[in-house]
Each structure stands twice: as C-alpha cells, then as structure tokens.
Amino acid sequence: MLYTANYYLGSLKKTRPLKIYLGDLTYTTVTLATEAFPLNVGFIASYCKKLFGDDVEITLFKYIDDIDKAVNENPPDILGLSNYCWSHNVSYEIFKMCKKSNPDVITIWGGPNFPIDFPSQKKFMQNYPEVDLYVPTEGETGFSNTVKLCLELNSLKEAKQIILKNPIDGCISRNEQGEIHYSISTVRISSLNEIPSPYLNGMMDKFFDGKLTPMLQTNRGCPFHCTFCTDGRDEVNAINNFSIERVQDDIQYIAEHTPKNTHSLHISDLNFGMYPRDIDICETLAKIQQKYDYPKYIKCTTGKNQKDKIIKAIKKLNNSLRVTMSVQSLDPEVLSNIRRDNISVDHMLALYPALKEANLQTTSEVILGLPGETFANHMQTLRDLVRAKMDEIVVHTCMLLDGSEMNLPAERKKWDMKTKFRVLQRDFAELSNGKKVIEYEEVVVGSKTMSFEEYIDLRILAFIIFVTNQGIVFDAILKFLREQNIDVFELYYGMLTNRKNSSENTQQIIEQFKHATINELWNSPKELLENFQKNSEYKKLLNGNAGTNVIYHYKAVVISESMGDWTEHVIKTAHMLIKNSNIYNDELENQFKSVANYCRGLSYNVLGLDRLDTNPQYEFEYDIPSWLSPKSDLKLNNFKLDTKLKISFQLDDEQFKMVQDNIDVYGHSRIGKSKTLKMLPNQKLWRRPLITSNHTTYLCWDDE
After folding, report:
1. Could you give the strand order of the β-sheet that contains 171-174, starting from the edge strand earlier in sequence?
2. How many distinct helices (H) and strands (E) make up the chain?
3. Could you report the per-residue pLDDT of 352-381, keeping only the tens digit for each?
4. Do the beta carbons of residue 13 and residue 21 sit within 8 Å?
C-alpha cells in the first residue's frame, strides 16, 4: 500500500493540533556559522498549513540552543530537520534527544546530504536508527504525506507502525528488520506558487533579528550535471519558477521587515541572472533599494551561460550584486571528467571583461583536487583567471558530498582519490546533555594525478592569491604590471617563491598557514571526533586554534593585524619584477613609487579600532585616480602632474557602519572578523582616496 496526500479530510478522533517542529540549524558557539534564514523548512511549514490548517501547530527553529531546550521540555509529535554537511551531526543528536523525551515522536530528515546509490542509502538508514523517514527530494510532498497519515490515525504509535511496514510517497523508511522501503516521488512541484510564501504568512518574522540574512528563492533546479554537486542529479534538471508577482511580494515584505543593521540579501537560485525574467526581478530589487536603502549588497551564484542576460540583469542593481562565477576548472579534460562540458569556458572568460567594463566586481570560484587535475593544469586555471582580471579568486578544496555523483564508490576508485577529514569551520557545540557535537567534511588531498605535496603547495598559492587579488586595493600595481607586459600571475608566484625576502611577520603568517593546512586533516571521522571530545582539544576549537576555515582565518589575520607588512611584500615583489624587465628605467621607477603609495593608502588599517582616526596622506607626481578610471585606456606616463597632488585615504561613515554592524554580529575575534570579511564586498572595505586641491577636498572615485 502506498500512502499519498493529494488532499486532506482529517480525523474525527483528533483532540489537539499535531505538534510539529521544523529546523534548519546553525551553530552559534563562537560566532554565527550559517547566517541565512531557514527558508527551506519555512516552505514546508507553509505547505502543511495550507493543507491542514489548525490541525497542525508548527514551530520553526534556526538556533541550536532553542531546539535543544524545546525537544527536552516540550517535545513534538513530529520532528523534521534539514540535513546539510554543516548541520548533519547536530541534527542527528537532536533526534536522539527528542526520542528520549518522547519515544513516539516521528523523526524526519531531509536534504541533499544523502547518498544516491542504493547500497549506500541502505547503509545510511541503518547507521542512523533514530531517523524514521528520509525525504531525499523536495520536502513539501514527502513531509505533508507523513503529516496526513498521522492526522488520519488514532495515535502516533499506529502511524509509526504503518511507516515501518509501508512506503510513504516521497520518503524512504526502514523497518525493524533493517529493510529499506522506497517510494521516492519523481514528480516535483512544477508550479511553485502552490507553496504559500512563509514571508507573507508571517512564519519568517521571528528571524528578522538583526543576526540572520533574509533568503530569497525565485526558482528551483539546475540545468547542469556537475558530479561534485548535489544539485547535479537528473531529477532536478528542470527549472521550476515562483511567479514574478510572488517574488515581488516577497521582496517587498523582506525590505519592510529587515532591521537597519542588516545590509545583505541572499538569492538562493543556482544560476541567477541567466534567465530573461531575472531582469524583471532585478528591476524590482532596484526600486526597493531606492525606497528602503536595502539591500546594500546581494549575494548569489550567477549563471554559467547567457553572458548578455547576466550583465543586463546585474547592471540594474547599482553594483550591489557581487558576481560569483562557479568556474571550478578551465581545463577541458577536467571539465569533461566532472560532466561540466556543457558550460562554455570561452563564454565564462568572455564574461569578465564585459563585467569590468560595466564596473562590476567579480568573484571566481575554483575547486582544487577534481578528478584528473594535475599541478600544471590547476596552475594554468589560476593563471588564466588572473589574466582575465578577476577581482577575487577563491579556491576551495574538493569536498566529497553525500548526494553527489563524485562520491560514488566507483568514482572514488576510478580516480584513486586520497581523502582526509577536517572540522567544518565554526560548526561545533556542547549540547545540554553534555555531548560535544562537531561537524566535519571529507576532502580530496591527492589522487592518481596529484600528490599530497602538490596539494599543499597549491593551497599556499591559493592563499596568497586570495589575500592579494582582492579588487581595488592592489588594482594600481596590477594595472601597472600589465602596462609593462608583465604577467600578473608571476607576482603571486613570486610572493610564494620569494617569501623569505618578506618581513618576518609575513613569513610567519605563510608558514603558520601551511602548518594549519596540514594539521587540520584527520585520517578518519572517528579519530577527529574522539580527539575533540577531550576538553583540552575542544578548547582549541573555542579559541580559534583549530576548526577554522584556514584560508579565511589567515586572511583575517593579514587584514586585521598585518596588512602593512603584506602590502610591502606585494610592493617589493612587484618592484623586483619591474627591475628585472628589459624596459626598466628611472621614469618607471618614479611611476612605481606613486603606484606603491596609492596601494599603501588604500590598505592602511581598515579593521583597527582607531581606523577612523588614522588617515594616511601622500603626495603624488602622477594622477593615479584618473589613470585607474575604467574610462581611461592611456598609460600612466600620460598622467604626469605639474603640481604634486595630495591624497588622504579615509573610511567614510557608511563603510564604518557596515563593517561595524557585521563585527557586532560576528564578534571581534579572528573567527568573527573572518566571518565579517566573508560577508562584506571588497569595495566596501578599503579606504577611499580624497583629493585636496585648491583648498577643496573631494572624493575622486565612488564604487556606485
């Protein structure tokens, strides 16, 4: 017998509403780990309220402490939690705690962190006996079918007996003998407006707390099949949309309810900007920005194709949308290995100059350790992205995710993947039962085409590029090198190979980064988890000596504590490249002095407590701001001044407030500042040059 829920009649024997808890959890132990609203469970809650009305009482959770207390003091009838890599272990521990408080509770897990092959699915369900049901696809259908069953029967015990013996449409269950029942619905909700907005019905109201960031979803699905991604499965290939009117209403509601200290909006679409309707959505966002001064910046993953549409869409948002391109690799063979050859490399590279021409900031994401990747072709990917003048290049280590094709046993064996385990940054807590819960990830640190030593060297290089290639702050040096036909990639590689010529402080930071990158790796989850159950080791997580995102952590160290030394390393390395060129002369030397001082001014003390009180000032023989203008294509020697120009480098009030608002949320520690830097767009961080001329001071450029 297959249980479905096309409609609801209700049970006459019901004496009270069915109590339901739904959670998409985040850690807050050292700082807020995941800042997005729990929109996914909000959709499920809204759908259930539409079907069952007052017969259900639904409470949504984001913070672990809140649900920890709730399941112990007032346990629900049904507990549904999202399963992501960053909340996997804590969710399961909450299930266990809830079953102790209410043995009859029905526990439902859902989300992408679930294997796609049958043997692994069976093993998963056997390994997590406190989970009654798993919803591997869209949660609304499978969850509501379970709720319907519970409402129509006399008791939760009776419902659980049926769940153990019969498949529920859209769910996977396990009987008492360990056998798996399947009824995974292949039919997705095509008209997403069937799901009422959790914003418009008030279910999201309590999350407008000044800590979390509103999340907007305009469509579901992805047309691409990348093997490393949980959204690369064929069953999510079709794109389903919310109506434009629905999206507009959500945007309006979010803007009206967002606190003044919240500046950003997350768009969760997998390829925003790629579709014609996205232009209309951007127009709505632009009108909202004008009326509410929100959002100041928008985070999203932009489309991989349709360059013209993407540019047209994001230009409407006044440079508030940071363009993030999921490049991953530019090597044709690697792209073929990960089923990504339906994305044009030439198209993606062509997007960057167009974006720069439109004065838009760009970020490119790369994955280290993909199948078939070598030291040489990864270096070439980085070189090509640097040549494309990306503002920011972020290199992630390849992570093996449950729910991805790459994690299949056959794929692991094919590429001879060497993996280690590491703590997910900020994702740990001690629960009320005394259990220390820690999330971890499995990462690829070698393969048949890349050694572990090569992996470490490429991680160090990625760190140097990540800190240095940040848009704006070193733009003058990068442009000057390009004018002399010097490959900018050689600057970053030179900073790596010649790091012994940098300050002792800079050498120490790079060496600490290297050791942290090696020491964060564990041979097995058991070894990792047992280690951090020790109080002395757990304290390392609390004080930031372990369990951080190493690249972001040490970027925060550089920018908040050692930016001056780092800037000098950049300048010294660039100067060496220029002096070693065939065209070096005294005029180039003088030009470089102006370029170097300009970078010193921009990068000076951007996160210090006294950052408003310390404003460096330099005199310039060349008009650097005019030379850097996107409208200028002339070389620096055309901007020689008759009279020296005084420029003071300052932070304006808006910048200060935006940075401070984030620090207030995430904290003043290295971990907190690391999170702040991750949230802020680069153009909002660095100092602005103010020119003093004829007793008049004025801003010489503006990121708007």
Report:
1. 56-63, 18-26, 78-82, 106-110, 133-135, 171-174, 180-183
2. 25, 21
3. 776 766 667 778 899 999 999 999 999 999
4. no
Angle, vertex CA 307, rays to CA 301 and CA 311, nearest 5:
75
3-state secondary structure of 6: coil
Q: CA 611 to CA 686: how far, in whole Å? A: 11
Residue with tokens 């940054």: 425
Where does residue 149 rank: exposed (0-12), middle (13-18), buried (19+ CB within 10 A)? buried
- What one-character-per-residue DSSP string does 223-241 give? S---TTSTT-SGGG-S-EE
Query: Considering the entire predicted model, what is its pTM?
Result: 0.88
Q: Is 537 helix (H, G, I), strand (E, B) or coil?
A: helix
First to last CA, the chain: 61
Tally of CA atoms within 13 A in the half-sphere of 2 that contains its CB: 11
DSSP string for residues in 497-535: HTGGGS-HHHHHHHHHHHHHHHHT-BS-HHHHHHHHHSH
| Residue at token pair 């650097």 | 624
User: Would you state the structure tokens that stand for residue 285, as one six-digit string?
Assistant: 């966002």
pLDDT number for residue 9: 40
583 Cβ neighbours under 8 A, 6+ residues apart: 484
Tokens 């994001």 -> residue: 314
> How wide is the angle at C-alpha 15 spanned by C-alphas 11 and 17, nearest 5°?
85
- With the CA atoms of 217, 221, 224 and 230 taken in that order, what torsion angle do they form, in degrees rounded to the nearest 10? 90
Q: What domains lie within the chain, and their CATH numbers? A: 18-183 (3.40.50.280), 198-467 (3.80.30.20), 587-699 (no CATH)
Residues in a beta bridge with 671: none
pLDDT of 69 above 60: yes
